[in-house]
UniProtKB/TrEMBL annotation:
Pfam families: Pyridoxal_deC. It comes from Aquicella lusitana. This is Glutamate/tyrosine decarboxylase-like PLP-dependent enzyme. One of its GO terms (molecular function) is carboxy-lyase activity. Belongs to the group II decarboxylase family. Keywords: Decarboxylase, Lyase, Pyridoxal phosphate. The keyword Zinc does not apply. GO terms for biological process: carboxylic acid metabolic process. The keyword Protein transport does not apply. The modification N6-(pyridoxal phosphate)lysine is found at residue 300. It comes from the Bacteria.
Length: 477
């Protein structure tokens, strides 16, 4: 007989309560030991849990058994990418308030779609206002939306910019499509891969992206001006924190050029926007307030669970966003202010709630302290690397990214072997990259609870141990 949930409600409720309590206890234990727990619970070569061979159950295992299977056969194989010393990508941890907010999001299961459908859309608007205040952006100039991350936010921003460009040719792209449109020149310094993806999806073609980055991965300002003189109504994509180097484009100068030549300025500030939270780094993002659109991630330095991003768009451009994403259906209101008319998804998870609760819990001072510790940790690691025989910095540490190399590594294959040895220490986890043809290592400091006192020594020990193991392996070979 098929499994009937109604007959099992009482036992299922008890099973849920037990599993939830166990999860909460596990989370609390993780938080108490955040600086000593290993990042990888099992070795890389052992990551093939037997649960992957389980067939679909006909009758169902029941919640207690299902929870036990997860805890025993799945959880041990998950990576603690919320660990303070997980530096592979620019990925934050999750503050306790954000975890609770995410739990609330699931339990209350709100749909952000229409204004007036509960209070969720109003909380989203309030969170946008709080974020604008946190980032010292003029409230009177910007509106915003929540997305699943900066990738979606970049797509939405470039879609709005495409609509803007079309209307300057008297073509309503959202209605008529790209037919007859002279494509915009899209100019970037060292764009994130999500910009390429947006170009593909929007029919602009990634090979038409004009890259003008210099050797420091920053915008070549002279080259930009020449391009703007040649291309009318261009779209400029600037970086506020480049993903490899952490470098910041000269936003004030770029913004002035965009105003002079009537170009749309989009700033990819997936993590760099948080520099404006802290007085010592605020100037890095000076000029971003002149942007037409700005993207940022909550699940990076905002330290809320995946996926949470936001797009800020200048109010004078908001209509291009609604024209691009407006939804027409007989059962829906045509009000352009509805959330569904400003983003890709018609109905969306209550993405703002973890960010809202975290901002409410910790305030400006709490986020300023998080950014301060991330910045100071990255600076300290940069100074340590300068003193090492095995390692050297490739670029100065500007904000929260440390780009460096091993002096004995000459190929990407050798770099991967070195990374394998470093990560095998379980003291830290980092990733490799290529920068100007040089195999490099990257520490992306983004976790809210990073601590110089508790985390620098394990990181240094892991880097030295990884270097020794790599050099020994090369000698033996």
């Amino acid at each position: 007989m098929p499994y009937e949930i109604n007959k099992e409600q009482a036992s299922e409720a008890l099973a849920f309560k037990a599993a939830a309590h166990a999860l909460i206890e596990s989370f609390i234990e993780d938080e108490k030991n955040a600086h000593v727990l290993p990042i990888y619970k099992v070795h890389a070569e052992q990551r093939a849990p037997s649960v992957l061979n389980l067939p679909l159950s006909l009758q169902g295992e029941g919640l207690s058994r299902a929870a036990a299977v997860f805890q025993d056969q799945v959880a041990p194989y998950l990576v603690r990418n919320h660990h303070a010393r997980f530096f592979n990508w620019v990925v934050g941890g999750r503050t306790p308030a954000a975890v609770l907010g995410d739990f609330y999001t699931t339990v209350f299961d709100q749909i952000v779609m229409l204004c007036g459908h509960g209070v969720a859309s109003q909380i989203e608007n309030q969170t946008i206002q709080w974020l604008l205040e946190l980032f010292d952006l003029p409230l009177q100039d910007f509106q915003g939306i929540f997305t699943t991350g900066a990738t979606e936010a970049n797509l939405c921003a470039l879609a709005a910019a495409r609509q803007w460009h079309g209307e300057r040719q008297k073509i309503n792209v959202s209605d008529a499509g790209l037919y007859g449109l002279q494509p915009p020149a899209v100019i970037a310094s060292a764009p994130h891969a999500s910009i390429d993806k947006a170009m593909q999806v929007l029919g602009l073609g990634r090979r038409h992206l004009i890259k003008t980055g210099n050797s420091a991965a920053c915008m070549d300002l002279a080259a930009l001006e020449k391009l703007l003189q040649h291309h009318q109504n261009a779209i400029v994509v600037a970086n506020c924190g480049e993903v490899n180097t952490g470098s910041f484009d000269s936003l004030e100068t770029i913004a002035a050029l965009c105003r002079q030549y009537n170009a749309w300025l989009h700033v990819d500030a997936a993590f760099g926007l948080f520099a404006r939270c802290y007085p010592a780094t605020h100037a890095l993002a000076e000029g971003i307030e002149w942007a037409d659109s700005i993207t940022c991630d909550g699940h990076k330095l905002g330290n809320v669970p995946y996926g949470c991003g936001f797009l800020f768009i200048n109010k004078k451009n908001y209509t291009y966003l609604t024209k691009t994403f407006s939804t027409v259906a007989p059962y829906l209101s045509g009000d352009h202010d509805h959330p569904m008319n400003t983003r890709v998804a018609n109905s969306q998870r209550f993405l703002a709630l973890p960010m809202w609760l975290s901002l409410l819990a910790y305030g400006k001072a709490g986020y300023q302290d998080m950014v301060k510790r991330q910045y100071e940790f990255a600076q300290a690691m940069g100074e340590w690397i300068k003193k090492q025989e095995a390692y050297e910095l490739i670029m100065p540490v500007v904000f929260n990214i440390v780009l460096f190399r091993h002096k004995k590594v000459a190929s990407s294959e050798d770099n991967q072997q070195l990374i394998k040895q470093i990560n095998a220490t379980n003291q830290l986890s980092l990733s490799g990259t290529m920068f100007n043809g040089i195999p490099a290592l990257r520490l992306a400091v983004a976790n809210w609870c990073i601590s110089l006192d508790q985390d620098q020594q394990p990181v240094c020990e892991g880097l030295l141990a990884g270097s020794h193991a790599y050099l020994f392996e090369k000698e033996v070979a």
